[in-house]
Design goal:
This protein is mostly helical and 75 residues long. Helices cover 75% and strands 0% of the residues. Helix 2 runs antiparallel to helix 3 and helix 3 runs antiparallel to helix 4. The model has no long low-confidence stretch (mean pLDDT 95).
């Protein structure tokens, strides 16, 4: 996650990186914290990801899938 945030900052996507950091800071071991992080990820995907490099989009999607499993369980 740190590498993605660093690349987003360096690539001029500071607002997206800040939103992901905010969501990540909500992780407290409870499902509510994971759900808040998932909301941040989905917000960044909707509002910013179209301007990311392919690698960043893929990494963010992988993080979203993992966080979604933490919130909703395996499909």
């Amino acid at each position: 996650m740190d590498g993605l945030l660093t690349r987003l900052d360096a690539g001029g996507h500071a607002e997206a990186a800040a939103e992901l950091r905010r969501g990540f800071s909500c992780l407290n071991g409870l499902t509510d914290g994971w759900a808040l992080f998932l909301e941040s990820i989905e917000k960044v995907e909707a509002e910013h990801a179209a301007r990311f490099a392919g690698e960043e989009r893929r990494e963010l999607a992988a993080v979203r899938r993992a966080v979604r499993r933490a919130v909703y369980g395996p499909r």
